[in-house]
Design goal:
This protein has 596 residues and is mostly helical. Helices cover 62% and strands 0% of the residues. The protein has 34 helices and no strands. The protein has helices spanning 13-19, 25-29, 34-39, 43-49, 52-62, 70-83, 87-94, 97-105, 114-130, 132-141, 144-147, 155-165, 173-182, 185-195, 199-217, 223-227, 233-243, 248-268, 271-278, 281-284, 312-325, 330-338, 341-351, 356-370, 376-385, 388-399, 409-422, 427-434, 437-452, 466-476, 497-509, 517-532, 541-550, 586-595. Helix 10 runs parallel beside helix 13 (173-182), helix 12 packs parallel to helix 15 and helix 17 packs antiparallel against helix 18 (248-268). The longest helix has 21 residues, at 248-268. The chain is elongated, with a radius of gyration of 32 Å. The two termini are 56 Å apart.
Length: 596
């Protein structure tokens, strides 16, 4: 009997084609619904596809070396999708060992196109995932675990290996790991890592090794034998040598490798591996002062790319130091404290005023040191050797008067908060504060004023910047004993930094509802309304200077000082942007068109 919808169903081109006795194979491959019909197990289509001669044609097309036209390349990709669309089709492929050998031979060639890699890896991933017991013996027979290491520059090959290492994706996962262990795949990968100078290949190798470490985290059966060649002390020394090599590309990848290795060693409690890296931190410090950036400098304006840039190599070196400094093993932390890297890291922090990646990395390290996660010795070195407190105070005093203020000013304030908190429990911090007159000056002139002023712009940014609005909302949550301080008010007196910090931390430590965005925002608007109606006059001079620097009109000045902000008055319709600058005349046309 026919279904109701069959009455209104027109036959597709593919169905009409399958009813013909003779049709061209290329014509079948050109059908847009071919792959979907294979996945949905169309009976007539599967009867044709599962024929041995059809499987041969599909493989021939899938691993074609040089497609003559774009149409041929599209058909080749379609064949790869068809072969990996159904378990039945893949089984029919595995039933012909000669065809399987041809696919594995792709990885034994020196030059392989992306199209061949795409189709071959797609088919093999599908076969390993669903037909593991059948494909692993064939892979061993064709030395797949060896030949695949020659093509790690291909993203398709790296993705395939990462998939094979994930037990959630592969049935009979231990068979795949046994194949890698038998053919010493990861020993070959490490050898390839040492000799490669291609950034894409090195990055892919690190991704594969990270996938192996993730498999260890899941306690996959057989993974220990697989990763043994890359977690030994000798292998670690080889990677450390690469991290200090002359090749900048190899250095960057080696530091990324070391970060993955440190994470793995920390999770597995491998103190021997961590000590091996900690003892070699000195040579790694050369990455922080290598010739390419020995004489660094910073620019006065933030919107321009820094020249010279700070560089990912130095960021990863700092990350390696920070990860080792926060190890759970005291002997590792003591070894890290002997290295000369910390003073250099602090010097770089104060030299590069516009690198937010650096600022955040160093702030996290300093916070961890003050919280005792890195041991006592680094606390002494940070305060006494690096002279953090006077240098931080000097940077605050000079930075707050710059126009625009450097991007590091916000991180400097957060560091000051950490120093004040640490001074309540750490004697070395108390001694550093007592010996620093700059700290007392910064406390009186900068810190209390910045943290007590709801409406103070800390650093450069666009008007109505969401980040600046978040900062204003955050500061409006701090309950003070007196109204917010305005630097323009004649009777304003700055509160002591300690009182403000104590009040602020007490508020946020007891606030259980700060994750409720709605109530948080409503309270912030209420506090902002109250601030707007106080007797403190609003001064637009700073904002006018900022808009003058950015060469845009101060649109916020159209609101009067007595204007009370109400959420119901916020319009979602954008106002036309007008300017007298001929170079920006296009904005007016855009705004008019948008409003229409």
């Amino acid at each position: 009997s026919r279904m109701f919808w069959d009455t209104f169903h027109d036959e597709s081109t593919l169905e009409k084609l399958l009813k013909q006795e003779n049709f061209a194979f290329d014509e079948l491959l050109d059908q847009p619904e071919l792959v979907d019909e294979c996945r949905h197990a169309n009976p007539k289509l599967l009867d044709f596809i599962l024929k041995p001669e059809t499987i041969v044609k599909l493989v021939d097309y899938a691993i074609i070396e040089n497609p003559s036209t774009v149409e041929v390349a599209k058909r080749s990709s379609t064949c790869g999708n068809v072969l990996s669309s159904s378990v039945k089709i893949t089984e029919a492929f595995l039933d012909q060992p000669a065809l399987v050998a041809r696919v594995f031979s792709v990885f034994q060639r020196k030059e392989v196109s992306n199209l061949q890699f795409n189709n071959s890896t797609k088919l093999l991933i599908f076969a390993f995932n669903f037909l593991t017991t059948r494909v692993v013996p064939l892979a061993l027979e064709n030395n797949f675990g060896v030949s695949v290491t020659n093509h790690l520059y291909s993203d398709f090959v790296a993705e395939m290996l990462v998939n094979l290492l994930d037990e959630d994706r592969v049935t009979c996962h231990e068979l795949v790991l046994k194949m890698f262990a038998t053919q010493s795949t990861f020993t070959l990968i490490l050898n390839r890592f040492e000799t490669s100078n291609r950034s894409e290949e090195l990055g892919n190798i690190v991704a594969v090794l990270s996938g192996a470490f993730d498999a260890k985290e899941k306690r996959s059966a057989g993974i220990d034998e697989v990763i043994a060649p890359i977690v030994s002390e000798s292998a670690c020394n080889r990677v450390l040598a690469c991290a200090a090599s002359a090749s900048l590309v190899l250095r960057k990848a080696s530091l990324q490798f070391l970060l993955a290795l440190i994470k793995h060693a920390n999770s597995q409690g491998n103190s021997v591996l961590l000590m091996t890296i900690a003892k070699r931190l000195g040579p790694l410090g050369a990455n922080l002062t290598h010739n390419e950036t020995a004489s660094f400098q910073t620019l006065a304006l933030p919107p321009v790319t820094l020249n010279p840039p700070f560089g990912i190599t130095r960021l990863r070196t700092i990350a390696v130091f920070s990860a080792l400094a926060q190890s759970a093993f005291p002997e590792v932390r003591q070894e890290v404290a002997k290295s000369p890297l910390l003073p250099t890291i602090i010097n770089l922090f104060f030299a590069f005023k516009w690198n937010s990646f650096l600022h955040c990395a160093v702030f996290d390290l300093v916070k961890a040191i003050f919280e005792g996660k890195c041991g006592d010795q680094l606390q002494v070195e940070l305060i006494n050797t690096c002279k953090l407190i006077p240098r931080l105070s000097t940077a605050l005093l000079s930075g707050v008067n710059e126009n625009p203020r450097p991007a590091a000013i916000g991180v400097l304030l957060e560091m000051a908060v950490q120093i004040d908190i640490a001074s309540k429990s750490l004697a070395v911090v108390q001694q550093g504060i007592a010996a620093s007159p700059e700290w007392r000056q910064a406390n009186q002139e900068v810190l209390a004023k910045c943290l007590g002023n709801n409406n103070m712009r800390l650093a450069g940014g666009k008007p109505n910047d969401p980040a600046q609005r978040e900062r204003t909302i955050y500061s409006s949550k701090v309950e003070l004993d007196e109204p917010p301080i305005s630097e323009h008010h004649p009777s304003s007196k700055a509160k002591s930094f300690e009182q403000i910090i104590e009040k602020s931390t007490a508020k946020f430590s007891n606030d259980d509802n700060h994750n409720n965005n709605n109530s948080f925002e409503e309270e912030s608007f209420a506090n902002f309304d109250e601030f707007q109606t106080t007797s403190h006059p609003h001064n637009d001079s700073d904002e006018d200077e900022f808009h003058k620097y950015m060469n845009v009109p101060n649109t916020a000045s159209r609101y009067s000082n007595s204007h009370k902000l109400d959420k119901t008055q916020i319009s979602t319709t954008p106002e036309p942007f007008t300017t007298n600058d001929d170079d920006n005349s296009g904005w007016a046309d855009f705004s008019n068109a948008f409003n229409q």
